[in-house]
Structure formats: structure tokens, C-alpha cells
């Protein structure tokens, strides 16, 4: 779990350092802008913007019942962020598995991608699709 927060915390600390430097340099407006920009980056790279993750086995079980896609992701992945943002509210109609929190999810992704942990990997009807177009995923949401 700690690994998921390393990049967001680096953004927060960097933003604070830049803001202090701007403030001490007599540029309070620049300090505020820099701090806000870094906080937005921290938020975008944190697990907070993603729907609640479940385990891979639970996701497979639920998907078999309701037919929803399974999205394997990890914090800090820009392609996962892009998929999440482009799905909008529809993202909640998928089962999300954080591969950094679930070893079975990481193993499933490695199996689907020839040993690599390439995310996002979306499983639809039992078939994995690596880094699919968000429009394609949206079309498969119930």
C-alpha cells in the first residue's frame, strides 16, 4: 500500500518546496499556482481517483455473474489514469483490481502479457486486452 502513495507524496513535497521558494522570492501568486498544480498532480496519481479496488478472484467471480469488465491497474500509471478519466462515471461499472495490492491480480496481468505487468489490462468475457482504447471499453460497459 505504501508504494501507491510514493509518487503522490513526492508531488506534494516538491510542490511545497517550489511554493516556499517562490514565496521567499517575493512571488506569492507563483507560490499558490505551483502548490495547486503539484497538488492536482498528486491527486491524479493517487489511488483516490479510482473506484474501490477488489481482489482478482472476487473480480472474476463478480464478472462471471454480472458480465462487467475487469480493469487491472496500478497507481501512477498514466494510461490507467487516462482510461479512468475517459470512462468518467462509467468507470464504476467495472471491477477494478490494483495489482500493487493484489498478488493474484499481478500474476493475472503477467500471464496475459507475456510476463510483463503492463496495465491497464482489461478482461472482457474472459479475454484480456492490454491498454485498450477507452471508447472500446466504454462500449462494453453494462
Write the layout of secondary structure elements.
Blueprint: H1 2-24, H2 28-44, H3 56-66, E1 70-73, H4 78-87, E2 95-98, H5 103-112, E3 121-124, E4 127-130, H6 134-139
Parallel strand pairs: 1-2
Antiparallel strand pairs: 1-3, 3-4
Kindly describe this structure.
With 142 residues, this protein is of the alpha+beta class. The protein has 2 domains: 2-48; 50-139, Glutaredoxin (3-Layer(aba) Sandwich), CATH 3.40.30.10. The protein contains 6 helices and 4 strands. A 4-stranded mixed sheet has the order 2-1-3-4. Strand 3 (121-124) and strand 4 (127-130) form a beta hairpin. The longest helix is centred in the first third of the chain and has 23 residues, at 2-24.
- How many angstroms separate the termini? 30 Å
The rough form would be described as: elongated
Oligomer: single chain
Can you say what the CATH homologous superfamily of the largest domain is? Glutaredoxin
The radius of gyration over CA amounts to 18 Å
Mean pLDDT: 92
Element order: H for helix, E for strand: HHHEHEHEEH
Q: What is the strand arrangement across the widest sheet?
A: 2-1-3-4
Poorly predicted regions: none
Helical percentage: 40-55%
Domain Glutaredoxin: 71-127
Keywords: Membrane, Signal, Transmembrane, Transmembrane helix
Transmembrane segments: 31-50
InterPro entries: Glutaredoxin, Thioredoxin-like_sf
Amino acid at each position: 500500500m505504501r508504494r501507491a502513495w510514493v509518487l503522490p507524496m513526492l508531488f506534494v513535497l516538491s510542490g511545497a518546496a517550489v511554493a516556499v521558494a517562490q514565496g521567499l522570492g517575493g512571488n506569492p501568486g507563483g507560490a499558490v499556482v505551483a502548490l495547486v498544480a503539484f497538488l492536482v498532480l498528486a491527486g491524479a496519481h493517487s489511488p483516490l481517483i479510482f473506484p474501490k479496488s477488489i481482489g482478482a478472484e472476487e473480480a472474476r467471480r463478480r464478472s462471471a455473474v454480472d458480465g462487467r469488465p475487469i480493469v487491472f491497474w496500478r497507481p501512477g500509471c498514466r494510461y490507467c489514469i487516462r482510461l479512468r478519466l475517459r470512462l468518467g462515471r462509467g468507470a464504476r461499472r467495472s471491477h477494478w483490481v490494483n495489482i500493487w495490492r493484489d498478488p493474484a491480480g499481478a500474476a493475472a496481468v503477467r500471464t496475459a502479457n507475456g510476463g510483463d505487468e503492463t496495465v491497464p489490462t482489461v478482461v472482457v468475457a474472459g479475454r484480456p486486452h492490454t491498454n485498450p482504447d477507452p471508447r472500446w471499453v466504454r462500449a462494453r460497459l453494462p
